[in-house]
Amino acid sequence: MTTSESDAIFSALADPTRRAILSLIGEHEELPAGEIAAHFDSLGRTAVSSHLRILRLAGLVAERRDGRFRHYSVTPTPADAVVAFLTSVYQNSLEQLASAVQDASATGDTPLNRADERSA
Asked: Which CATH number fits domain 3-74: 1.25.40.390, 3.40.220.10, 1.10.10.10, 3.30.2310.40?
């Protein structure tokens, strides 16, 4: 995943309305744009279309045209890349934490021991 692709994905996911739209589409195999818009009474069809376009350009949803209707479905590949990225970020942090805990345990320098020393 390139930087511009990941930026587009995270930018698309930063908006709560787009996350709600993505979640709604994910609950179904495919949804027509009109049905998606019907779930968001506070937004007009134009706003929903704009959100769908951003999700599509980020690669998070696919669009299928059927006559004058557009149907949307979730595209898993970009989401897999996001999950892999976040996993690697947090995995490294967890590994560093585990290493620090092991080092502290080996020397007896644990937060609990330090608290006991301060209270004594």
From this structure: 1.10.10.10
Q: What's the confidence (pLDDT) of residue 41?
A: 87
Q: List phi, psi (to 5°) of 8.
A: -65, -40
- How many whole angstroms separate alpha carbon 37 and alpha carbon 45? 6
**DSSP state for residue 1 in the 8-state scheme:** -
| pTM score | 0.71
DSSP 105: H
Per-residue model confidence (pLDDT) at position 25: 97
Provide the 3-class DSSP secondary structure of residue 61: strand
Q: Find out whether 72 and 25 touch, Cβ atoms under 8 Å.
A: yes
For residue 112, the surrounding DSSP H or E stretch is helix 111-119
Q: Give 78's pLDDT tier (boundaries 50, 70, 90).
A: confident
Buried b / exposed e along 68-103 (16+ C-beta atoms within 10 A): eebbbebbeebbeebeeeeeeeeeeeeeeeeeeeee
